Amino acid sequence: MEAPELFATAVPEEQLRRGAVFGPTRGVESPAAVGSVRAAVRGRMREHWQKGRHFCSCGRWEEAIICYTKAIGLDPQRAELYEQRAEAFLQLCDFQSAVLNLRKVLVLAPAREQRCLARLALVLDLQGQCLLDQELYSEALEAFTRAAELQPHCKVFRQRSIVCLAALGEFPEFLQMLNRELEEDVRNPDMYVLRAFFYNRFGQLALCHQDIQRALELEPQHRAARALWHRLLRQGQEAKAQAVLKALCGDLRGALYKINFAIESDPLAAKFFTLRGTLLRQLKDFSAASKDLARARELSAVGSPEAQEAQRQLVLTYNDCAVHCYALGRLDEAVKLLSEALRNEKAEQGLYTNRGGKWLGWWSQQDCFFHLGELAYALADYQQALELCPGNHAVQGRIAAVLHEMGRWDLAARSPRKWHSHEAEQSWFSQCLQDLTSSRMWKKLKSS
């Protein structure tokens, strides 16, 4: 008995000899047949492409994307299809898909690089603006940064990045980038206004006011700059009103703090400097008071009520400072200050009186010209004061005291052998008695 075959086959021997195991052999297609297939594929692709363009013109973006996708499936190396599909995605605000399609265009068509980069930067910019409206500041900053990298010469992308940094609270980086932008473009009012808002937020009102003024110089009707400026003016007026209230209550330090804030808000308001100068005078800070009152006079129109009030307060400051110097025994400085005050206010009789000498008691003149022994100057000041205010009993008493002192000094200067020649002394004392009897002090003594 024969052993069975280990691997039986159902293929007959004859068929194996003919080599027809896998069926009849087909012939190779001709080049003409291949060309007709490619033409059919190309024609079908153009058909889908044309439909996509038609749908785009009608605003039917979803259907256009479907057609472009079918066309790309038939011809995946055609850059125009990706570019137009990116436009359709952009219209649907599908920014990420638009970016991917534009990047594919960069790979397929290097010759279109400049145009494609500009379009890609625009898509990223629009994406950033949408994210910014949704308060997604980190994502918006990333989009604007990528757009700026693609188009370094376009400043608007960097400016929007600055806005995102401010919204994120990255203030050091924000200010650094903003200052760099202003160095490159000093005629951009929007950047000055943006920095002004930053300074206002952090209480640097003087710098805020400077940037507002620069913005308004470049664009006088800039809405944001004018709105911020009016806000500062309102802040200044409110702070000034609070300063006046505190001053009336006797809180001079609190009033000074408020008027400082008012001046920072509006550094061109003459009334604010006048008020601060007055407060500083009352606090005995005469040097700072003089500077503020001089500044108020500069800011005021010539002859205006503000200028007159600043002038008056400046004269009072010189007078008070002179009195302070007198109390410290610095009589020469007191005379200089009163002389400066008289140069600005020649019709104030009180200044002549103070420079001549201050009445501290019966027959006692202890300051300025009188104390310095300059009796002739003291007498001239008293007489000038009496001309400005005729009949002033206090000034007449001072004149009497000076004449008495001049007579006594003249009498003491003579030797004992010449005392018999006392006509000069009689003249001094007679004039002294005449002024004294007309003064209010003599009337008080007589009534007592």
TrEMBL record:
SMART domains assigned: TPR
SUPFAM superfamilies: TPR-like
One matching Pfam family: TPR_16
Repeat region (TPR), residues: 45-78, 79-112, 121-154
InterPro entries noted in UniProt: TPR-like_helical_dom_sf, TPR_rpt
This protein's UniProt keywords: TPR repeat
Superkingdom of the source species: Eukaryota
Protein name: Tetratricopeptide repeat protein 16
Source organism phylogeny: Eukaryota, Metazoa, Chordata, Craniata, Vertebrata
